[in-house]
């Protein structure tokens, strides 16, 4: 009984300070990534792909910083999620191992953003700003255009593939494997506890609420992992093949829209799932919004923090 409760608390990051710090950093990175989506959406809806700005500052932002900030934030989120899952895996599956396995949480929270930012620096130069003069009014406008010479460089093509491997393909494989192992260990622990409970009680004295909570916990861990896998795969193909030449193709535009819709769905469904079923998640959200009293809201099951949220969008509208 004690072992099963301890595993539950570890998965929920309640008794591991390192996991708590990584969870906060992961949440902040995901929030920054979502904030960066807002100017991107405005640019796509109002200014389209190239844009027509009458000031240089927004033009330079969308040409150089839009993808860098958005993808950098989401890249940090993916690495934080991977580090968090690794800590949970070691805590649950190898409890005798010296922890924390990644060292000081402050060090991890600092190093991951620095390395991720450095890896995304080449994205700053994939576009450039073109100045145009409209006659006869002599109005100056600024447009964002791709640097075709830079993008067609073989080294940049290799860089894009490596970036996708680091921030999408490898994390997907590792997250799926680690979460699967955590689920197996947790399920075995639940089965042992259930057998011990039933050996002391008659079948009519079972605790159906406790067993239902265990099933929901296992289901949600698995479903959010699958959701992450399904939503991130199209983005890998999109980011590797993204170019202005492909953007003019109608079929590619459809694929692009579907890939981005899946990414938004990943964020939205994960948020709704945990708000609906996690008491701790709801209380934290309400406290953040200033809508909660000191007494927590009761109801729902205590489940782990999200373990499969989000991915990187190499081209935000993409």
From TrEMBL:
Keywords, alphabetical: Membrane, Transmembrane, Transmembrane helix
Coiled coil: none
Ranges where the G-protein coupled receptors family 1 profile domain occurs: 25-274
GO terms under cellular component: membrane
Residue stretches spanning the membrane: 25-45, 65-86, 106-125, 165-186, 217-237, 257-277
GO MF term list: G protein-coupled receptor activity
Cell compartment(s), UniProt: Membrane
Primary subcellular site in the record, as a coarse category: membrane
tRNA processing keyword on record: no
Cross-referenced PROSITE patterns: G_PROTEIN_RECEP_F1_1 (PS00237), G_PROTEIN_RECEP_F1_2 (PS50262)
Pfam families according to UniProt: 7tm_1 (PF00001)
Family: Belongs to the G-protein coupled receptor 1 family.
PANTHER family: G-PROTEIN COUPLED RECEPTOR B0563.6-LIKE PROTEIN-RELATED (PTHR47760), G-PROTEIN COUPLED RECEPTORS FAMILY 1 PROFILE DOMAIN-CONTAINING PROTEIN (PTHR47760:SF1)
Protein name as catalogued: G-protein coupled receptors family 1 profile domain-containing protein
Source species: Diabrotica balteata (Banded cucumber beetle)
């Amino acid at each position: 009984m004690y072992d099963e409760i301890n595993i539950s608390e570890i998965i929920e990051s309640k008794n591991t300070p390192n996991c708590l710090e990584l969870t906060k950093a992961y949440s902040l990175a995901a929030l920054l990534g979502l904030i960066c989506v807002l100017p991107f959406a405005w640019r796509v809806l109002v200014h389209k792909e190239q844009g027509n700005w009458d000031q240089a500052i927004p033009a330079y932002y969308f040409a150089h910083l839009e993808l860098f900030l958005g993808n950098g934030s989401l890249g940090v989120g993916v690495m934080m999620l991977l580090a968090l899952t690794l800590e949970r895996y070691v805590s649950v599956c190898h409890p005798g191992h010296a922890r924390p396995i990644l060292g000081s949480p402050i060090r991890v929270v600092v190093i991951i953003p620095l390395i991720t930012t450095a890896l995304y620096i080449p994205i700053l130069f994939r576009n450039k700003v073109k100045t145009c003069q409209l006659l006869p009014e002599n109005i100056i406008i600024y447009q964002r255009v791709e640097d075709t010479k830079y993008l067609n460089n073989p080294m940049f093509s290799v860089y894009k593939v490596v970036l996708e491997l680091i921030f999408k393909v490898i994390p997907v494989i590792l997250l799926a494997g680690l979460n699967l192992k955590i689920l197996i260990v947790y399920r075995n622990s639940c089965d042992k506890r259930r057998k011990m409970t039933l050996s002391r009680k008659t079948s009519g004295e079972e605790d159906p609420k406790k067993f239902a909570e265990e099933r929901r916990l296992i289901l949600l861990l698995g479903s959010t992992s699958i959701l992450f896998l399904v939503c991130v795969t199209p983005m890998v193909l999109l980011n590797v093949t993204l170019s202005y030449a492909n953007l003019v193709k109608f079929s590619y535009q459809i694929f692009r829209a579907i890939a981005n819709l899946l990414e938004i769905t990943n964020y939205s469904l994960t948020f709704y799932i945990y708000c609906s079923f996690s008491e701790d998640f709801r209380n934290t959200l309400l406290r953040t919004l200033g809508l909660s009293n000191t007494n927590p809201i009761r109801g729902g099951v205590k489940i782990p923090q999200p373990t499969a949220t989000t991915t990187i969008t190499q081209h935000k509208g993409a």
